[in-house]
């Protein structure tokens, strides 16, 4: 059975629309809470409404778009009450990966991760610092790249943008204990430097406001 050219092109258009909109959401071109009209988006992206609707559905599964039937489709609006649960969800996803991958990093990967964590610490030291995924996401992606489990890698990659985006709330600096988080980042940098997976897991729990795993085990 032959597939029509239109059917073959449709997944590609859907993927292109999804990646274009995902990039615009993550970069702030489409701000949190921005309304998304599929007809207007189709005109702007120069495609039909069907791949746009499919792309929006994909982005909803990633946590970047939210629907209210017969009311609106919009970019996800981060909520203050979700800040701590979101940070903890990131920690639960990455804690075990952090511990298991630290020892697997080669010297180049370890040096790059060490610098990336240092960049986050430098950003946090600036008086005008505001939360943003630009400095933080490369740290998470370093662990994703080092993870040898393809199913886990896929899960982490799919969840990362949606979770980090939910931390973009105007009150994030007041709502989270940043000195506590900074202490965890310092400990994680030390763990990377000395290839200590156990310390890395404990540091990750500190960063993500989770209980110390060693105390939980005892």
Describe this protein's structure.
The mean pLDDT is about 90. α1 (about 5-25) packs across α3, α4 runs antiparallel to α7 and α5 (about 105-125) packs antiparallel against α6 (about 135-145). β1 and β2 form a beta hairpin. By secondary structure, this protein is mostly helical. It starts with a helix and ends with a helix. A two-stranded antiparallel sheet has the order 1-2. It folds into 2 domains: about 5-75, Arc Repressor Mutant, subunit A; about 80-215, Four Helix Bundle (Hemerythrin (Met), subunit A) (Up-down Bundle). The longest helix is centred in the first third of the chain and has 23 residues, at about 5-25. It is globular. It is built from 11 helices and 2 strands; from the N terminus they run αααββαααααααα. Pfam families: GntR. It comes from Curtobacterium caseinilyticum. This is GntR family transcriptional regulator. Keywords: DNA-binding, Transcription, Transcription regulation.
Task: Give descriptors for this structure.
mainly alpha, 11 helices, about 5% strand, about 220 residues, Four Helix Bundle (Hemerythrin (Met), subunit A), Arc Repressor Mutant, subunit A
